[in-house]
Amino acid sequence: MASSSTVKPIFFFLVFIPFHFPVLSSKPKAPTPSAWPLQFHSVLFMNNSGTLQKVDLWYDWPNGRNFNIIQNQLGKLSYDLEWDNGTSFIYTLDSNKECRVLHFHVGVLRPNWLDGANYLGQEQKDGFLCNVWEKVDFIWYYEDVITKRPVYWAFYTGYTAHVMTFEVGAVLEDSEWQAPLHCFMEAEEKRKRDVKFGSLGRIGRRLGKLMRGVSGASMAL
Length: 221
Description:
- By secondary structure, this protein is mainly beta.
- It has helices at residues 2-15, 188-191, 199-211, and strands at 39-48, 51-60, 65-72, 77-83, 87-91, 99-103, 118-125, 128-135, 139-144, 150-155, 160-168.
- Residues 1-25 form the signal peptide.
């Protein structure tokens, strides 16, 4: 009897000892930028050190093509047609019939080209509260917190883009993707020469180079 009476208080004491487990606090996970829709149309207002442009951007990933229709302020209307095989046509449809055919080893940006971007926090831009990411010290990308639509892009050169419209699923008719005949009349050596082209094309192609293989391969500057 004596042994059982001594055990009970010990048991009672052990049962009612309060146990305090540490609560592990974790830093909130940074948001990730939305992948681009497979097809969309966007109107952009671009500013390149005071040179203004209105750009109609048609993105068509399933068909491996991207199209920038560029209206310079009170100036030339030009077309920048890019294919995923690395061929680009930069041309006009006016009486001058200008055209440059360029060849690159990179093609159209992947929809997930922003994977791995560095999250910088939130910032008001153009009246929208945006999540902001930076990619390889080349582009700063602003996305609306609520709708997840892009709002603003800034390139390391100071070139900026204000996104005016963003139509998910919009597709340009196939007939509009055909480069004009005068683009195919250049000699092969002329088509492959190292040419100096417009800011939008230069940025787009360097961006393409930076984002090449983003879904698995490492990126090189």
